[in-house]
Write a structure and sequence with these properties.
The protein is built from 24 helices and 23 strands. It has 796 residues and is of the alpha+beta class. Helix 1 packs across helix 12 and helix 15 crosses helix 19. The two termini are 41 Å apart.
């Protein structure tokens, strides 16, 4: 119930979000539907200006653009923050007033107005120590100075997850129709207007524009929709798919409740005499079943109370994982919250009723299905009452299979985490400071060279100047740049190898390896020597030579340990696209072999390095070897970067051994969750199997007494009784082992293939499960054999 409700609440906020505003359901967004590409896209600046003048069903029509800029305070501290360049109408639309000062006004967006900024509550708390005198302070936003005029209340992040707001001053007259920046448009439905009426009005305006401007708007049509849908755009089918993810949690609960149902059935069997008497006195079958349902409901309700409390506390944990791993350190939209909605509470009630039905109604129906006369006949004939057969045998086998499968999955997840999150890098990662670099290309700056070539030249010049200044610092021993870093996930590529290669590990898709572009001094800065061959030099870049350096794992996996130097490889496709013929790249000559430096891809960690070429996209990461603690140098790094170029943003300034924190947290979350669920399943399964088998054997005390009285040997009696329980456990272990084998074959991963160690673990586990079964059966058997036959018959 905890996992199910927590998952359901998060999925509700994804698929059916609500805005925490006054009449938040009336806040809408307007986007363009492109029929040619069958996709939604932002509106052009000219379209927004036209809608603002003509639309009557939507009030306060405004627009915004996402920006990320360095916020530089008077003390020289620099930090990249998410900023909304936004219309002043945004704040009246949300109906949220400033906590301190004021919000943006119409005068702020006028050309020539003094630059101002409104900051968010968290930014005010963290960067300004919640100083009430923050109003009027001058800060620098990128290259531009701005005065703080307001602070928004806690939790306000409109339009998405922004922490600061500056005026949107783009003027359509500065751009020709069909050119200029795009913007996201929002507003609030006018009093009395419906979403359908607004849609009809926008559709009429769109049709007129398409007729007037067929060159640019022939395939475009404005669509108005609930605001959150413009951020998280899900179709009805996708919403169903999102909610279907919770089916796994329900299936797990059904399996757990099935085990509880076994125990409840055993308890009901022990009350057989009571039920027979009540039935004889007129109690109907329905009344008896309802009583057992009520008893199970008490247990399920207690579980629901605990589950809801855990879900409330665990939801924030899960959202933190999503923000760190899926959003790469970003933030969920502002309407996400860690409290449980009424829908989730109702969902918990449904899960509670389902659990009670499985644990109470099913055993009740099974217990009362035979009726009074049949029960009396069985008791008189020494039948021992109801038996665990049919569906209950299937439940036992399934439970045993789960106890085999789930520990393996947990073990595999832990192994995957250790290999992909904590790889061996071969150097002192804690001595290196890693940085993710970002700069924005302004496409719509009048009278400026905004070409890609000019932008790349600017980025290269900025990075070179920053490197020069860093190397002047006594604490810096080396600086290098790369498109990715050790210990981080690397995208994999499908590659081809020249003649003479071993059979590919995946004969359908070919070899899968990772790659990264590096500077020539990369290995020198890392303090590692090549295993064989040579490194990159300036001639490789100047001549345009196609050369690569592969790692040890590449030699082992792809070439079977053969000498790689002089061999050729080429990229056939990457995990970002399909296996298209036009995606095949040129041949590259292998000139060297590097040690494995933590190039993780989730697929063997085999990889190769290529030299950074000037015309390509600039590298996103910078790596520095520093003296002392890397964190201590971070403030100096930020100061130098802002001095070189205020538009250069430094994200994730962390020691290299912490750069994988988000990925490690993600794996740790699933490891803890799967470990917890595995532990719960194991405890319930072992307890259930032990209790049910022990109870089933103890129910045969009369039978044992009769067989002893007739001269049956103890050994033969024991073997006869153990035959069925042992068969059930053996079948369950075999079923679980077959599931594991199927998973391994389906994954087609040599690292996950059968091994002698795994087979040994499986054998030990099978012995443990058989031991549980024997212990459950032997104790009541010994007790029954010790009873005198006359006493056993008298007891019945």
């Amino acid at each position: 119930i905890w996992v199910g409700v927590g998952t359901f609440e998060f999925l509700v906020q994804v698929a059916a979000p609500t805005l925490p505003f006054d009449d938040g359901d009336r806040v809408v967004g307007i986007r363009m539907w492109d029929a040619a590409s069958s996709d939604m896209r932002p509106a052009a600046l000219h379209d927004f200006a036209e809608w603002r003048e003509e639309v009557r069903t939507v009030d306060g029509l405004g627009a915004y653009r996402d920006l990320e800029r360095n916020l530089i305070t008077a003390d020289g501290r620099s930090e990249p923050i998410a900023i909304a360049e936004i219309s002043a109408s945004a704040f009246p639309v949300t109906r949220v007033a400033a906590l301190l000062g004021r919000t943006l006004t119409a005068a702020d967006v006028e050309s020539g107005a003094a630059p101002v900024i409104v900051i968010g509550y968290s930014l005010w708390q963290r960067r300004f120590a919640a100083n009430p005198d923050v109003l009027g302070q001058l800060v620098q936003v990128g290259r531009e100075p701005a005065t703080i005029v307001g602070v928004m209340p806690e939790g306000f992040g409109f339009p998405v997850a922004h922490r600061a707001w500056v005026p949107l001053r783009l003027n359509p007259i500065d751009f020709e129709r069909g050119t200029g920046p795009t913007v996201e448009v929002f507003g609030r439905l006018a009093p009395g207007a419906s979403l359908e009426e607004a849609g009809a009005e926008l559709a009429a305006i769109g049709s007129r524009t398409a007729a007037d401007l067929p060159e640019t708007h022939q395939h475009l049509q404005p669509r108005v929709m609930p605001y959150a849908r413009t951020i998280l755009e899900l179709s009805a089918l996708m919403s169903v798919g999102v909610f279907s993810m919770n089916g796994f949690m329900i299936a797990l609960m059904v399996l757990l409740c099935g085990n509880v149902a076994l125990l409840m059935f055993a308890r009901a069997v022990s009350r057989e005499s009571e039920i027979v008497v009540r039935n004889a006195l007129g109690a109907s079958r329905g009344r008896i079943v309802i009583q057992m349902f009520a008893e199970a409901l008490v247990l399920a309700s207690l579980a629901a109370g605990i589950g809801l409390a855990l879900a409330r506390n665990g939801l924030r944990w899960g959202m933190t994982i999503v923000e760190g791993e899926v959003l790469e350190g970003g933030q969920l939209p502002f309407w996400f919250h860690d409290s449980l909605s009424l829908a989730s509470v109702i969902y918990a009630v449904g899960l509670t009723l389902l659990a009670a039905a499985i644990a109470g109604v099913l055993p009740g129906l099974k217990m009362t299905r035979q009726g009074l006369v049949t029960a009396l006949r069985q008791r008189t004939a020494g039948g021992g009452g109801p038996r665990f057969s049919g569906v209950w045998t299937a439940v036992i086998v399934t439970q045993v299979a789960l106890t085999v499968l789930l520990p393996y999955l947990t073990f595999a997840l832990q192994r995957d985490m250790q290999e992909n999150v904590e790889p061996e890098v071969g150097f002192a990662a804690e001595r290196y400071l890693a940085v993710r670099l970002e700069m924005d290309r302004e496409d719509w700056v009048p009278a400026a060279d905004t070409s890609r070539a000019a932008f790349l030249a600017q980025v290269r010049s900025t990075q070179q100047e920053l490197e020069r200044r860093l190397l002047e610092q006594p604490a810096v021993e080396g600086v290098t740049f790369a498109t990715n870093l050790p210990r981080r996930y690397h995208d994999w590529n499908q590659i081809e190898i020249d003649e003479g290669a071993v059979v590919p590990q995946d004969t359908v898709r070919g070899h899968r390896v990772s790659n990264a572009f590096i500077e020539a001094d990369y290995f020198e800065v890392l303090g590692t020597e090549l295993v064989s061959g040579r490194g990159f030099h300036s001639g490789d870049i100047e001549s345009g030579a196609h050369v690569v350096i592969v790692n040890d794992r590449f030699v082992e996996v792809v070439l079977g340990g053969r000498n790689p130097v002089g061999r050729r490889v080429r990229v056939a496709a990457s995990d970002l696209g399909e296996d298209l013929p036009e995606s095949v790249g040129p041949w590259y000559e292998i000139v060297g072999v590097a040690p494995d430096l933590g190039m993780t891809s989730g697929y063997n960690a085999a990889g190769f390095y290529q030299p950074i070429i000037p015309d390509a996209a600039p590298p996103r990461f910078m790596l520095m070897r520093v003296r002392g603690e890397p964190e201590a140098f971070a403030p100096t790094l930020r100061r130098l970067a802002s001095d070189v170029d205020p538009d250069l943003r430094l994200n994730d300034v962390l020691p290299l051994d912490e750069m994988d924190a988000a990925e490690a947290q993600f794996y740790d979350f699933w490891l803890r969750l799967s470990g917890l669920l595995t532990l719960v399943v194991l405890i319930l399964s072992w307890a259930g199997i032990y209790s049910v088998m022990s109870f089933a054997v103890s129910r045969r005390t009369r039978e044992i007494g009769i067989r002893v009285a007739l001269g049956g040997g103890a050994g033969r009696i024991v073997l006869g009784i153990l035959r069925r329980p042992l068969a059930q456990v053996t079948l369950g272990v075999a079923f679980g082992a077959s599931l594991i084998l199927a998973l391994r074959v389906g994954l087609s991963d040599p690292g996950m293939g059968p091994s002698a160690a795994d087979a040994a673990r499986m054998g030990v586990y099978a012995v443990v499960m058989l031991g549980v079964c024997l212990l459950a059966c032997v104790v009541p058997i010994r007790r029954a054999l010790a009873v005198e036959p006359t006493e056993a018959l008298a007891a019945e």
